[in-house]
Amino acid sequence: MSENIWDGVIPQDEVDAYEAAGFGRASGVGSKPALLIIDVQYRTVGTEPKPFWESIKEFPTSCGEVGWQAVAQIEKLVAQFREKGWPIIYPYVAPKENFDTGRLAAKVPALMGVAAKGYEFVPPVAPQPGDILLPKRHPSAFFGTPLVSYLVERGIDTLVVTGCTTSGCVRGSVVDGFAYNYRVVVPHDAVYDRSLTSHKVNLFDMNAKYADVMSTDEAVSALSKVDAAS
Amino acid sequence: MSENIWDGVIPQDEVDAYEAAGFGRASGVGSKPALLIIDVQYRTVGTEPKPFWESIKEFPTSCGEVGWQAVAQIEKLVAQFREKGWPIIYPYVAPKENFDTGRLAAKVPALMGVAAKGYEFVPPVAPQPGDILLPKRHPSAFFGTPLVSYLVERGIDTLVVTGCTTSGCVRGSVVDGFAYNYRVVVPHDAVYDRSLTSHKVNLFDMNAKYADVMSTDEAVSALSKVDAAS
Amino acid sequence: MSENIWDGVIPQDEVDAYEAAGFGRASGVGSKPALLIIDVQYRTVGTEPKPFWESIKEFPTSCGEVGWQAVAQIEKLVAQFREKGWPIIYPYVAPKENFDTGRLAAKVPALMGVAAKGYEFVPPVAPQPGDILLPKRHPSAFFGTPLVSYLVERGIDTLVVTGCTTSGCVRGSVVDGFAYNYRVVVPHDAVYDRSLTSHKVNLFDMNAKYADVMSTDEAVSALSKVDAAS
Amino acid sequence: MSENIWDGVIPQDEVDAYEAAGFGRASGVGSKPALLIIDVQYRTVGTEPKPFWESIKEFPTSCGEVGWQAVAQIEKLVAQFREKGWPIIYPYVAPKENFDTGRLAAKVPALMGVAAKGYEFVPPVAPQPGDILLPKRHPSAFFGTPLVSYLVERGIDTLVVTGCTTSGCVRGSVVDGFAYNYRVVVPHDAVYDRSLTSHKVNLFDMNAKYADVMSTDEAVSALSKVDAAS
Questions:
Q1: CB A144 to CB C143 under 8 A?
Q2: Which of residues 60-89 of B touch C (CB under 8 A)?
Q3: Could you say which architecture CATH assigns to the domain B30-224?
Q4: Which helix or strand (DSSP H or E) is residue B193 part of?
Q5: N or C: which end of chain B has fewer CB within 10 A?
Q6: Using one digit for the tens of pLDDT, what is the confidence trace for C121-168?
Q7: How much is the ipTM here?
Q8: What dotted CATH number matches A12-21+30-224?
Q9: C227 touches chain A (CB under 8 A)
Q10: Which helix (H) or strand (E) element contains residue C168?
Q11: Exposed, middle or buried: residue A229 (CB in 10 Å: 0-12, 13-18, 19+)?
């Protein structure tokens, strides 16, 4: 396990402790994958790539350059899923309404005032006709949405989860996807966060308990072995 | 913010990045609290306090001594909730049945073979008649359980979440509790994990986005101001 | 029980059978009500009151005149809730997208081709700023929506359910509201259906097991005793 | 439509009204069925077949002889599912705990005092090792249970719903199964209720909107064409 994204953040004795408890086995990929692209909107990356502290001047919710780097990886998955005809699903945050008060407004008030431009999808990985749009109001793509119904209708058994943030909506969706018994793949370079430490530790947590964490290239390779006809 | 549990793990510039994005405001305590004691069973702490590497010889799922230290903190909250007559809820893992296959068995096979003794509640904070027992099969106390129905019946608006693991069932429950619009308090010394780093980073994440993280003593103090009659 | 809406449809011996089993006790009204107005859009009543067989020429999903009669009753509740400042929630069907296939499209294909005008709210009881809009894709207002989160945030303990159809989205929402432990009131003249028999039997079922069924005037009277300050 | 179970209860013009609106198309059977046997415990049929008014002396919740007639039909499905190796799932009511207050206790207090014997499964269709036991506290087998996780793990696309009551837990489960996009089959002689009228009208409702209603023999025949290998 010498080349994991969380090396240097999680000490070796803690990695050993998880292994001793038997965590981290691979779930593998099934035969009916769907791609989730979560919250890849201008509000999370800015309208153009800029360093974090520059980017948040445009949108306080932006993660900056790391988001654009992830977008480049997500493009590979989008190309593969479009070619195979597999479902691509866009859980996204809709503009806030005046009745959207609640805990989110209390904990992170800045989220309530994002400009309309911020809600647009980032063009290289934006939805096309036939993709599934899934507005959501809470972190997990499953919470308060009909996502499971879309997955059941299509017989999905595997979720590839991309977008942002690693420690927020990605993780929330991964935990729920796992609980519903979907096999979950998280390409670590196709998810992003405003804290690199939190990003790495969340990937460690998800790999230990809920998902198979790998690079986008490894995910594309694993998915290329899925028989589209199955 | 000079004395947070995650100091030294999350670098200051990342803490600053979260603050710049406006994360981490306090939600506060409401008027109808409930206490969640998650998975405080022998299988997560051992039948007696021992160092981690000793404890996992008894149960591979044990977190060892840190669990017993948290139990001592949870006792304070149990005393307060019993005195006030506020609900105490025990989400817990029931012994596995032969039909409990699925993603959990695939990711963490060691969880499937825990001895019966491991499922007993830890005596100092064990349930008493009138407490709510909530068997669960997935990380979040809300997933696949009637927890919300119990909360609605009792008019609960605030959840105090304790037990283990910080990065697993505690976090999953906190994210869902937040999404349901409950005010969530996480006493950082009343939750525990087998990785100290993951414990700290998950507390950072939860404080930034989903919950008010404080010490048990601070939580007891804040709760003492709640008017039980309201 | 001599003046129930289901008299003449459910035979007396069956009413007796339910009573013998102890069904049908009143739940009562709590202290924090919310009003649900379900699917009161032109597509369910037509743009003007017409007999059923005329009305379905405009929208095959219309219930016709009975819908307009219910609208007149709902107006009374809307007036009361606006005066008291209690929440009014509009679960409604959004126009179908091309990814909305699934069981609904299979069972009731006519639902997929309703004209845009049909999705407009019926003016006398249409939403105003501050009301909660809740798009849904399935019968129950709770299914795949964040309705519970809105109710928790507002401390709601009682739901008054109106709209249509009695045997469809009203009943589905009532069963779920009951399961979440909300007290549920169904004003029988403020809900409507395209089958009078099914309307009556569903009211019988709901009254026996899930809700307090009464007239709108009785509901307004019961609600007038709620202390808005509580 | 001259031989439907609801003939004589739903007037012809109301049947016509539903047909005019385009309701009632068949969903069909998929390739991965699961059988739900809901609440077939002594408390719903009595320990031996007796007329309704005799049977409720043993358990006030009994439906009497109609329950035993349905059990004989369910046996055919159990035999088929066991032979094919398809999943059989038992959503059932567990004995009440002292914390199980709530709306159910308010609406139907008699349900709270059933003797232990009443919770035993009816022998001819009782669970065997490997079957899935699903304790529930609310009408729908999906509500507050991990049922969807079991279905996703097994790739299920079709539910055959049996047991009781037609107007209660059967209907609640059917509506949710439909909303999750499962194909749903309800064998009308394998479900039962204490009101024959409500039984028939609920079958009409379910056939119009949520499920394919047919006899058990027809269901067995339709299922015999499913390729077990798919």
A1: no
A2: none
A3: 3-Layer(aba) Sandwich (3.40)
A4: none
A5: C
A6: 999 999 999 999 999 999 999 999 999 999 999 999 999 999 999 999
A7: 0.94
A8: 3.40.50.850
A9: no
A10: none
A11: exposed
Do A149 and C144 make contact, defined as CB atoms within 8 angstroms?
A: yes
User: Which candidate from D102, D133, D146 shows the least CB-CB separation from B138?
Assistant: D146
- The residue type at D75: E
Q: Which of A56, A138, A198 minimises the CB distance to B201?
A: A198
The third-level CATH classification (topology) of the domain covering D12-20+29-224 is Rossmann fold (3.40.50)
pLDDT score of A229: 47
Separation in Å, CA of C10 to nearest CA in chain A: 35
A182–D contact, CB cutoff 8 A = yes
A56-113 pLDDT tens trace: 999 999 999 999 999 999 999 999 999 999 999 999 998 877 777 788 778 877 777 7
Please provide the DSSP assignment of A41-63 as one string.
Answer: BHHHH-SS---HHHHHHH-TT--
Contact assessment for residue B39 and residue B59, using Cβ atoms and an 8 Å cutoff: no
The domain limits of chain D are: 12-20+29-224
| Statement: C12-224 belongs to CATH 3.40.50.850 | yes
Nearest chain C residue to B145 by CA: give it: C180
**How many whole angstroms separate alpha carbon B56 and alpha carbon B42?**
11
By the CB < 8 Å criterion, does A128 face chain D?
A: no
Tell me if B23 sits within 8 A of B204, measured CB to CB: no
Considering only the beta carbons, identify the residue of D26, D53, D197 that sits closest to C10: D197
Backbone φ, ψ for residue B208 (5° rounding): -70, -35
Whether B8 has its CB under 8 Å from any CB of chain A: the answer is no
pLDDT tens profile C21-41 = 888 889 899 999 999 999 999
Find chain B residues with C-beta within 8 A of A141's C-beta: none
What are the residues whose beta carbons fall under 8 Å from the beta carbon of A40, sequence distance 6 or more?
A67, A70, A71, A74, A90, A92, A121, A122, A125, A162, A163, A164
Q: Is the pTM of this model over 0.90?
A: yes
Separation in Å, CA of D227 to nearest CA in chain A: 14
